[in-house]
Amino acid sequence: MKTLEWVDNKLKLIDQRKLPDEIEYIYCDSYEDVIIAIKDMVVRGAPAIGVAAAFGMVLGYIAGEDMGKVADEIKASRPTAINLFWAVDRIYNSDDPIKEALKMYQEDIDTNLAIGRHGSQIIEDGDTILTHCNAGALACVDYGTALGVIRSAFHQGKNINVICDETRPRGQGAKLSVWEMQQENIPVKLIPDVASGFLMSQYKINKVIIGADRIAKGGVVNKIGSLMVALAANYFHVPFYVAAPLSTFDFDSSIFDTEIEERDGDEVRYYGGCRICPKQTDVINPAFDIIPKELITGIITENGIIDPI
Fold this sequence. Notes:
Blueprint: E1 4-7, E2 10-14, E3 25-28, H1 31-39, H2 46-62, H3 67-75, H4 82-92, H5 97-119, E4 128-131, H6 146-155, E5 161-165, H7 172-183, E6 188-191, H8 196-201, E7 207-210, E8 214-217, E9 219-223, H9 226-235, E10 240-243, E11 249-254, H10 266-269, E12 270-271, E13 274-275, E14 288-292, E15 298-301, E16 304-306
Parallel strand pairs: 4-5, 4-7, 5-6, 7-10, 8-11, 10-15
Antiparallel strand pairs: 1-2, 2-3, 8-9, 9-14, 12-13, 15-16
Helix pairs in contact: 1-2, 2-3, 2-4, 2-5, 3-4, 4-5, 5-6
C-alpha cells in the first residue's frame, strides 16, 4: 500500500484523515488540489509532503502554468518541512519534471530501506522502542524512516516491542503508527503522551526513535511533543535517535530560525469530533518542536548514523 502514486497524470493519495477506520483515496488533478491536500493533512510527513509537492509541480507543468507562481504557492502550503522546499526547487530546476518526480518517488523508497538497514544496527534483541508521531510508511512513499528502522529490525528476527504515544492534538501516533505496526504484527502498545517520562523512569524504554521535519545547525524540528520526550530521555539516559533522509537537512540555516507552523485552535478544542474545553477557549497550537542537538544521540540517514550538525 503506497501513501501516494502517480496514476494517469493524477496524484493518488491515501486520505490519512480517515485512518485507521477507513482506507479512502483522493485524486489530485491540479496543483491547487495538491496544496489543499497538504494543508488539510490528507498527506503528511516530511518525505511524503516532499514527493507530493514534486507531483504538484508536475501538475502545474502539464497544465502550462507559470512554474514560478506554482512553486511559490506550493512552498507556502506548509512552512516548516524542508523536504517540501527541496522537492519544489528540484522540479523547478529540472529539464523533465515528470521524469524527475518519478525518480524522486523511487529514491524515497530506496532511501527509507537504507535508513532501516543502518538504524537496525542500534536495536538489540529484547529492546522496547518509543516513537513519537508517525514516521512510518504513511509519512513517506513507503516503508518509513523511524518506523522503517523498527520494521527492519523486526524483519531480521529481533524480538522487539514498540510503544507509540498518542501525539496530540491530531493523534498521529494513536491513529497511524499503531495501525502500521498492527498491519505487520509488530508488538505495539499505545500510551498517553504524558506517560513516556514515567515509563523511562521505570526502565521500560530502551531507545527512542523519531522522524524529523527539518534538521539544521543546532538540532532538529519534529512534531510538537518531541522536545518533552527528548528531555525525559536525556534525564533518564535513554538513547534518543532521529531517523531522516539527507533531503531533510538544511546545512545553511540555524534550527532556531525555523518558522514554526501555528495550526487551527480547533485541533486542540476538539478531539474525536468532541469539544473537550469551554467554547471560545484561547489556544496555542504550534505544530512542531525544536530539539537542541545536545539531546540527540545520533541521526540515522541513508548513508549511516551521524552526529547532529
